Amino acid sequence: MTSQLSSLEEYREAYKRSVQDPEGFWAEQANTFSWIQPWEKVLSWDFKSPDIRWFEGGKLNITVNCLDRHIPEKGDDTAILWEPNDPLGSIKSYTYNELLESVCKVANALKANGIEKGDRVVFYMPMVPELAIGVLACARIGAIHSVVFAGFSAQALADRINDAEAKMVICSDFNNRGAKNIPVKQVVDNALSIGCPSVRTVLMDRNTGDEVVWNSEIDVHWDEQVDHQESYCPPEPMDSEDVLFILYTSGSTGKPKGVVHTCGGYMVYTWYTFLNVFQYKPGDIYWCTADIGWITGHSYIVYGPLLAGATTMMFEGVPTFPDAGRFWQICEKHSVNQFYTAPTAIRALMAQGDEWPDRYDLSNLKVIGSVGEPINEEAWHWYDKHVGRGNVPIVDTWWQTETGGILLTPIPGITDTKPTYCSYPMPGIQPVLVTQEGSIIEENNTEGLLCIRFPWPSIIRTTYGDHERCRQTYFSTFDNMYFTGDGARRDEDGRIRVIGRVDDVINVSGHRMGTAEVENAINEHPAVIESAVVGYPHDIKGQGIYAFVITDGKSSDNVQTEIRNVVTKEIGPIAKPDKIQIVSGLPKTRSGKIMRRILRKIAANDTSDLGDISTLLNPDIVKEILQGAQ
Ligand code: WT7
């Protein structure tokens, strides 16, 4: 059996089989891997609790399948290729042999520092090879990694460290990003000074070598801990359903939640989707521009590609440094074959002019991908024409932190592509559109709420430390279905287009943000009485953040700037509102609920029909807000 689909017929066959005999289908895929002990039961599930188990009874270590398994045939092939921020800096590359050795050494260093199976280790580290190595080192010994995107603030980092009760934080000293040199360790120090009682060790990689404040009670140096370690570390046998990692993501209410993924199913699904969505062939150079701080980086920079024995590239920098041609220059320099990025990057580069991609040789590209938010028609066509040169399939991949891997996507060269459509389900995925009441919409050419009615191997298992929240958020809206939070449209031929969130989650430059989370941050400003945050269409970011804020009137002229600073401190610069309107009240229902529908329309400047406002507690406020709208 070969797992890489190579024709439409094979896709249809695989899809049919995956629905009629999901256990047989996934067992066959899982058999590709090396298991320490075979599973007893392929799948048991109950979406009510939820309680979902794949390959139960099986024992494995994912790093054996990412690394050791490839050594006999590919030991000298490049596993990770790293391109620095500075275009004149030296690239780094690790063969599979070298990567295995590096991972083992770090794994031994973690053990020497008291990290055991099940302990949580937080990473706050930009895109350096040590991040991928460290993550794999955790998996090697069964420690649970939780990577925090290094753009989050000290407060946000502290919240995540504390929720996971992490024993160790791994960071770098500084990192170059574009023209900036970012003091990474200092943010960790600030987080710890807020209070993170579970942390015993901070392991710091000397990256730039710039001076940092050193606390010898808790801080240790990577090289001093790692370099002298044994070059082999035996893999910890893990149960299929043991936790592999936690990754925090925003929801419509409360603080970000820790999405939990487990070892067996996540391994099988990220590998299967990587192989098929990118049609990776031996010798190809694959590049995903995401940050490992997000799920895209976990599944499609680290795990999926390494499980497939691929060469995966990591890029330290940003798309516009030193100029807007950087992505394309890198594609040319490394003869990239598969390129995977976000619509927000495409739109930002599109705005800089066609000459940037047109200047470079992109003829090695075979597949170009998009992920993270809906891609608009204009950006799709630009990507197709100027990057794909009209003959490279675009894979618009829809998925979520919670899904672990890609669920909806065209398969390049096999299924068709249509601008703005992520099209078809991967084998094993059973998407449905439902009405608000939860009845399944059978006909095509309709819109509905996107749900999945059967488990796939990398579906979320729980939210860390709060299983009820997982049930509530994803499994309680509709009986026996996973609810995605997205609205979607299905065309006359059954292709799906994901329109966007139907809950209070917004997507800013592909970064997921809870409006409640931003409001809570704004409300930390002493002059703020109440606030309401909504998303609005933004040319580059996809959605921008619009905040309506009631202040106590005693605020200074600078209150907008101050509010932005508070949000930066509480969450990070990515959550800063684009627009802040000071208002004297917010439209509320008689029961006191903010009517966000109205605010969304005002923010979008779509005010021709605000709907019925007569039932509001304070209908007059709408006029005031309209007049002051930005
Ligand atoms: C939300 C999930 C999974 C990778 C990164 C984002 C939106 C994601 C698409 C797409 C339309 C998309 C959805 C989804 N989204 N990909 N191809 N087309 N929308 O992960 O941060 O968990 O966000 O991103 O709204 O629910 P995430």
The order of strands across the largest sheet is 12-11-8-6-7-14-15-23
Contiguous low-pLDDT stretches (5 residues minimum) are none
C-alpha end-to-end distance = 59 Å
Helix vs. strand class: alpha/beta
**Sheet with the most strands?**
8 strands, mixed
Strand content: 15-25%
Shape from CA axes?
A: globular
What's the helical proportion of residues? 25-40%
User: What would the average pLDDT be, to the nearest integer?
Assistant: 97
CA-atom Rg in angstroms: 24 Å
- Per DSSP E runs of 2 or more residues, the count of β-strands stands at 30
Number of DSSP helical runs: 20
Q: Bound compounds, please?
A: 5'-O-[(S)-butoxy(hydroxy)phosphoryl]adenosine
